[in-house]
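Shape matters. As here.
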Amino acid sequence: MNEFHLDRAQVRRNFGRAARSYEQHDALQREVQGQLLDRLTFYDESPDRKGLLPERVLDVGAGTGRGTAQLKQRYPKAEVVAVDLALPMLRAAKAHSGWLKPFRRVCAEATALPFPDHSVDLLHSNLCFQWIDDLAALFGECARVLKPGGLLAFSTFGPDTLKELRAAWAAVDGHSHVSRFLDMHDIGDAMLNAGLRDPVLDVERYTLTYSEPRKLLEELRGLGATHADAARERHLTGKSHYRAMLTAYESMRTDGRIPATWEVVTAHAWGPPPGQSRRLPGGGEMASFSLSSLKGSRRR
């Protein structure tokens, strides 16, 4: 499915370094967060819920916790947990965890969530999943922790994100300088393979503009959204290459501004019912049942 791999340690370092500066640059993240919260009405109005509020809510890739605080505001009686792989981000998130409506903070990876099977009513993630290259492990873990009928709602970046910056570097050399992101169809296939039910995906493109290319690069560093492909060049980029990239990017200036495209995929799906099969990478399917559900099924 995906032909690239991310350096997970580099991803952790990038976001750890950006913990203090993140909220100075997260305008797009806040905009997408609002749209993602709108999707939670599917959970609130689900006939399967019968008006029941969630007991446990996870915010995976919570960053500085601004979105986690909004989830706690929406579901004040729920156990709301901010999950992030970068400990400095979780330390920064403490500022959003008020004493009246606190949320828990857990340092963990999305592919290894430290929660029991079928223990989560709502799993929310805003612009985090693009930093995970093993979609089978990611969505398999989502399906594992979700209760049957629980909701997964997330956003992620699509492959057209930063296409201008990528093209500017491509005009200079053939090396990888900009992170790559997966197509919506690959994401949807991975969700189905994991057994998630009734996935719905939408895509929207945003164009942000800057006075000069350096302003975009400063924003990416401030967010921690810098290059983390395992195949990236490990040596410092020469000044001549860097200046040539800036010149190539300048040629794309429109109406006096430098454009940057962000392709945002927003999606939701439901936790599978007990025993629903999931597809295996090598072919075939596997279903799982609790031991209690098998009592009395043995012939005597």
About this structure: Residues 69 and 96 are 6 Å apart (CA to CA). The chain has a mean pLDDT of 89.
